[in-house]
Each structure stands twice: as structure tokens, then as C-alpha cells.
Amino acid sequence: MRRILKCDGVIVEKMNTEGKGEEATPADISEIKSYVDTNRTLTTPFDIIIVGKTAGLERTERQEKFLSWQEAGLSWWVEDMIGDPQEQVIERIRRGPPRLD
Q1: What is the pTM of this model?
Q2: Burial class (CB within 10 angstroms; exposed 0-12, middle 13-18, buried 19+) of 82
Q3: For residues 19 and 15, what is the distance between their CA atoms, to the nearest angstrom?
Q4: Which sign, positive or negative, has the C-alpha torsion 55, 98, 36, 38?
Q5: Helix and strand tally (H, E) in the chain?
Q6: For the segment 16-54, what is each residue's pLDDT rounded down to a tens digit?
Q7: Domain ranges of the chain
Q8: Distances (CA, A) of 73 to 17, 18, 59
């Protein structure tokens, strides 16, 4: 974590005690943001990025999910479309980014 203080941001990947990936939570993001805010001396912007899926969520579910991440300090959400059918990926891109209303 000390190394990221010299960078412009971090893409969060969480692992459990067995070394297997698991989904980060807004609480994890809050903890990272707090650490960075407390320890970073650079004055340039710092982004916290997460990769996740929202496919299949209703609009209100997406809104709630994104708001909780935003409140925690997340800068960027990258939609994970790896392995999705090409037609689904193209349609998702055509719709554009989700909006927080």
C-alpha cells in the first residue's frame, strides 16, 4: 500500500486468506481512501478503481450499488464483460455508461 501513495491511483483486487479472489466491498474502498488521504503527500488527484458486474441488475439496484461505491470514495467503475457474448458487449457499449440520477 505504501507504493500506491506515489501513484495516481489503484485498481482494487481483493484476495482472501487462501489467496483466492473475492469481491471488494464499499467498506474496503473506504478503508483504502482513508489510508491514502492520511498518508499521501502528493497533491495530484488519486483514483480508486474497481472492476465488477452489473449485468442483470434492475435500474434501481444499479443506482443503489453505484451510490454506495461513490459514497465510499470510488472514482471509477469498470464493467467486467470478459467472457460475455459479443452481441451483449456491443449492446452494452451502445447504451453508454450508467447514470446516477
Answers
A1: 0.84
A2: exposed
A3: 5
A4: negative
A5: 3, 5
A6: 999 999 999 999 999 999 999 999 999 999 999 999 988
A7: 3-95
A8: 25, 27, 21
